[in-house]
C-alpha cells in the first residue's frame, strides 16, 4: 500500500476520528497514526498481518474502540492498558496466549472479544473490570474456569468450543451474569455446578455438545428455578 493512500486515510481519520484500514496486508501498525493520537476514537486494522502492537498504542488516550481481528498477534504490550477510555476491544483470530498483567486497568472496557486465540484459562485480570458487559473467549484452549471468575462483572460470557472439563462453583456468584455459553466443551454433567441452576442470576445456559445429554440437565436439582429465570427473561424480551 502506497504512502499516498495511507496519507489519504490519515486525512480522513483526522476529520472523522475513525481510522479503518482492513484487509490490506499490513505487516505493522502504521507509525504515522501517532500524529492523530489525540484525534482518534476508533481504530480498525482487522484482517491484516500485524505481528506486533507497538508500545506507542498507549498514546491514543481518547480511543474508545480498537479492532485487530485476524492478525498475527502473539502478545499485547503493557502500554495498551493505559487506554482509560477504551470501551470495545476486538482481538479475534490471533495467537494470544495471555493478557498483559495490567489489563485490569482498562477501566472503561465494556466489550472484549478474544475468540479464536490460544488462551488456556479465563484471564484473572478480567475480574477487575467493573463495566464489562460481554466477554467472548470462544474457540480457545481453555480447560478450566478458575475461582476468580466469581468476581467477573460481565452480563454475557461465551466459552463455546474450548476444552473445559472443570468449572469453579464461584461462577454462580457472578453478580450480573445472565448468559453463559458452554457449548462444545468436555463437560461431564457432574462437573457442572448445580448452583448455576439453583442459585445464580444466569437465565440462559447453553451447554449443547458436551459429554452428557441435555435431557439429563432437566433432572438436576435447581432446574425448576433456572427455568423460572429463563421464562421471566423470555417474557421480558417478547
From TrEMBL:
<protein>
    <recommendedName>
        <fullName>Leucine-rich repeat-containing protein 57</fullName>
    </recommendedName>
</protein>
<dbReference type="GO" id="GO:0005737">
    <property type="term" value="C:cytoplasm"/>
</dbReference>
<dbReference type="InterPro" id="IPR001611">
    <property type="entry name" value="Leu-rich_rpt"/>
</dbReference>
<keyword id="KW-0677">Repeat</keyword>
<dbReference type="Pfam" id="PF13855">
    <property type="entry name" value="LRR_8"/>
</dbReference>
<dbReference type="InterPro" id="IPR003591">
    <property type="entry name" value="Leu-rich_rpt_typical-subtyp"/>
</dbReference>
<keyword id="KW-0433">Leucine-rich repeat</keyword>
<dbReference type="InterPro" id="IPR032675">
    <property type="entry name" value="LRR_dom_sf"/>
</dbReference>
<dbReference type="InterPro" id="IPR050216">
    <property type="entry name" value="LRR_domain-containing"/>
</dbReference>
Amino acid at each position: 500500500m502506497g504512502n499516498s493512500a495511507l496519507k489519504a486515510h490519515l486525512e480522513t481519520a483526522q476529520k472523522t476520528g475513525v481510522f479503518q484500514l482492513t484487509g490490506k496486508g499490513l505487516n505493522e501498525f502504521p507509525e504515522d497514526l501517532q500524529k492523530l493520537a489525540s484525534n482518534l476514537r476508533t481504530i480498525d486494522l482487522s484482517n491484516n498481518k500485524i505481528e506486533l502492537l507497538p508500545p506507542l498504542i498507549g498514546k491514543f488516550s481518547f480511543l474508545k474502540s480498537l479492532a485487530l481481528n485476524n492478525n498475527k498477534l502473539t502478545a499485547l504490550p503493557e502500554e495498551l492498558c493505559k487506554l482509560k477510555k477504551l470501551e470495545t476491544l476486538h482481538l479475534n483470530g490471533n495467537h494470544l496466549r495471555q493478557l498483559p498483567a495490567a489489563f485490569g486497568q482498562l477501566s472503561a472496557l465494556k466489550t472484549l472479544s478474544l475468540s479464536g486465540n490460544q488462551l488456556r484459562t479465563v484471564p484473572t485480570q478480567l475480574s477487575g473490570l467493573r463495566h464489562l458487559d460481554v466477554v467472548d473467549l470462544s474457540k480457545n484452549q481453555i480447560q478450566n474456569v478458575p475461582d476468580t471468575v466469581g468476581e467477573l462483572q460481565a452480563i454475557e460470557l461465551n466459552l463455546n468450543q474450548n476444552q473445559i472439563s472443570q468449572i469453579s462453583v464461584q461462577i454462580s456468584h457472578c453478580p450480573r451474569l445472565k448468559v453463559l455459553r458452554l457449548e462444545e466443551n468436555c463437560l461431564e454433567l457432574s462437573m457442572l455446578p448445580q448452583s448455576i441452576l439453583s442459585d445464580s442470576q444466569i437465565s440462559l445456559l447453553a451447554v449443547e455438545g458436551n459429554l452428557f445429554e441435555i435431557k439429563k440437565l432437566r433432572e438436576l436439582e435447581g432446574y425448576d428455578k433456572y427455568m423460572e429465570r429463563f421464562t421471566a427473561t423470555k417474557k421480558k424480551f417478547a
